[in-house]
């Protein structure tokens, strides 16, 4: 009798993945991470929250950093934020593939980016 007590993680909780963030407007962002997809997507959402907070603070009380500077900083941090700043679509992340090797992961990201319609800034040329 063979027992399998190994806990299986869902794909979004496994580290070292190439991933895609789909917007409901059909825009797509492809990236790679050494972390889990859920952790990386939460970083994208955190930048988006910084952007939205700065946008709402343009009319509110003054902050330590000027709202426009905070918005520019958030947009520079992520192409997902740049797209979401002018699109109200829902963002849905998904794992494309899992790859342990950093170089292979970067190559796969570049190939997926180059051969798909994406909102990435580098368009797979890095």
Automatic annotation (TrEMBL):
Protein origin, superkingdom: Eukaryota
Protein's name in the database: GIY-YIG domain-containing protein
Organism: Trichuris suis
């Amino acid at each position: 009798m063979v027992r399998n007590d190994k806990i299986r993680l869902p794909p979004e909780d496994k580290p070292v993945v190439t991933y895609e963030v789909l917007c409901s407007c059909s825009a797509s962002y492809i990236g790679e991470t050494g972390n889990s997809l859920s952790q990386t997507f939460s970083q994208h959402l955190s930048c988006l929250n910084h952007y939205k907070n700065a946008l709402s603070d343009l009319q509110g009380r003054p902050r330590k950093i000027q709202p426009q500077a905070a918005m520019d900083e958030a947009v520079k941090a992520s192409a997902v934020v740049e797209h979401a700043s002018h699109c109200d679509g829902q963002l849905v992340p998904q794992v494309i593939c899992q790859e342990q090797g950093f170089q292979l992961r970067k190559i796969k990201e570049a190939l997926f980016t180059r051969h798909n319609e994406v909102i990435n800034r580098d368009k797979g040329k890095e």
